[in-house]
Amino acid sequence: MRIVCVSTPGGRELFASDLGHGEDPHVAVWQHGLSLTRPLSATRDGEEIVLTVQGAPHSHGQVRLRRPRGLDPDLHTEPGEVPQVRQRVAAYGIVTSPRGLLATQFSDRTHVPGQWGLPGGGVDPGEEPPRTVVREAWEESGQRIEIGDLVAVQSDHWIGRAPNGTLEDFHAVRLVYAGTCPEPTDPVVHDVGGTTSAAQWVDLAAWRRVWWTAGARSLLDKNL
């Protein structure tokens, strides 16, 4: 992934650089003496995804340490076992409709079975991130949605085991879009046997009563 920081939407470029493995986009911008004020777009340039953000100068110096890498507290490794380095870019949607907020439940193929998140998933090769959300919303809930603005970027970095047992040095970058569903229906999971076990429309007045993942809860606190 490449990150481009501009002064205003369509304005002059302040800097552009590759996003290193484990590097948070907010920290990358901070290290250039700027604060990430707003994500603007994420587009594909060949095999690379280019994240464009708006930045503004800050007054706290130009050096900030990288956010610490997490470590699964229950992790057991074999002598000499080396984690595979993996960076995964994914796209998700905060999707609303007259029936409420669209939520998807994680299956037992994940590390958070039973918890709820937002529709979305990994960006496929050659796929534009907004299209990822449209595709995943259909696969995970049977809803046809429309994508709006890019509203947030999240990043996590940890060492742990994937659901298949592979030891990974894993960097997750999540692009989060606003979305709407003009004609909501009763949710149905089409991708049976995957990482989604169920989907539902959640009343916007009661969304805090749902057992969200920490990441989804943080996003909803800031964007609902």
List keywords for this structure.
224 residues; mainly beta; Nucleoside Triphosphate Pyrophosphohydrolase; 2 domains; 8-stranded mixed sheet; 4-stranded mixed sheet; 3 helices; 44% strand; globular; DNA mismatch repair protein MutT
Characterize the main sheet: 8 strands, mixed
Rounded to an integer in angstroms, the radius of gyration calculated over CA atoms is 18 Å
CATH H-tier superfamily of the largest domain:
Nucleoside Triphosphate Pyrophosphohydrolase
Could you list the spans in which at least 5 consecutive residues all have pLDDT below 50? Answer: none
Number of helical stretches of at least 4 residues: 3
Query: What's the order of the H and E elements?
Result: EEHEEEEEEEHEEEH
Q: Within the CATH hierarchy, at the fold level, what is the topology of the largest domain?
A: Nucleoside Triphosphate Pyrophosphohydrolase
Walk me through what this model shows.
It comes from Enemella evansiae. Residues 69-78 have a biased composition (Basic and acidic residues). The radius of gyration is 18 Å and the shape is globular. The chain is 13% helix and 44% strand. The protein has 224 residues and is mostly beta strands. The strands form two sheets. Strands 5, 6, 7, 8, 9, 10, 11 and 12 form an eight-stranded mixed beta sheet that branches. Strands 2-1-4-3 form a four-stranded mixed beta sheet. The protein folds into two domains: 2-57, no CATH class; 83-222, Nucleoside Triphosphate Pyrophosphohydrolase (Alpha-Beta Complex), CATH 3.90.79.10. It contains three helices and twelve strands, in the order ββαβββββββαβββα. Strand 10 and strand 11 (167-180) form a beta hairpin. The chain has helices at 25-30, 129-141, 214-223, and strands at 2-6, 13-18, 34-45, 48-57, 70-71, 84-97, 100-106, 116-117, 120-122, 146-161, 167-180, 196-202.
